[in-house]
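Researcher: Here's a chain I'd like modeled. Treat it as a single chain, no partners, no ligands.
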Amino acid sequence: MARIDLRSDTVTKPSPAMRRAMAEAEVGDDVFGDDPTVNALEERAAELLGKEAGLFVASGTMGNLVAQMAHLARGQETIAGREHHIVIDEAAGHAVIVGTSIRALDDRSDGTMDPAAIDAAFRDPADPHEPISGLITIENTHAHSMGQPLTAEYTREVATIARAHGVPLDVDGGRFWNAVVALGVRPTDLSDPADTVTFCLSKGLACPVGSVVVGGREVIWRARRARKMVGGGMRQAGILAAAGLVALSDGPDGMIDRLAEDHAHARRLAEALAGMDGIVAAGGTAQAGDGPLDPARVRTNFVLFRVERDRAAFLAALRARGVEMVEYPHGQVRAATHYGVTATDIETTIAATRAALAETSRRPVASAPVGPPT
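Model: Modeled as a single isolated chain. Structure tokens:
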């Protein structure tokens, strides 16, 4: 039985075009700035997002770390959402490595923070008891709200608050391109208000490794120094960067436009789940409530839902039928669609889910909490 893996969009395999490009990549020593393929990827990313420079890093977490290190002095504070990736999914790197704190605000059901709360969260720099507010970060798409895309209007509103307080805005755009496609906007509509943007190549864009941070030349130079400090000099990294160039290319081998397929597959899955006995609620963030699964909330490639009975038993029954999903915060299950998952796979998943629900509805409830995946 072929396995259908919906645990995350990080489980993708590189496309044939990526594998060819990786095998044929021209390489050099990237720490010396001599790898032409890495240089080309960084330039392409910066061009697409309207920034002066880019930096290829090993992961989204590394991208978020070096962006924070480029913007912040030790002892400063970032304003971010309580359920943002940098707050709960990066092993407290902001504290351990960057040496900063986070003022965590509530995430709303649409993935945003209340702009008035952001404005009110700034510390008094004249008070020696308080840390100095140094950065605002937003997450786009916002994972814990079921992958909601944050609009250009909201991004500009937050940027205006940041400018009024004299601090930069950073976008943790792990799934930035999903937001671009879901909203039908230009990438620069979402990137222009921000000082830095990090986006992952290894999620929806289906590359095997890597993320890119983009911004002004000066801040990217500081991020490059930070990358070296955290061990991110990857030498002949053009072999990896070549896949990113394919993903960001125009034409049939590019991975950006095809994200619409993932979104359509997720919506189809949600529509089927919403009509099943045993699917009782889906809220996303803690503030999203406990109403029934609303397929209209599935705007990108995430489907979050709760089951009536034993979540662990349901996932085991689903796995026995060749379908993988994963436990998610607030008692939920997550299914993430991605490259390699077909419309046929979604129909198979629907049938397997219905059967797994029927099987586990006859079992006693016994579940244990787990930590959130990224």
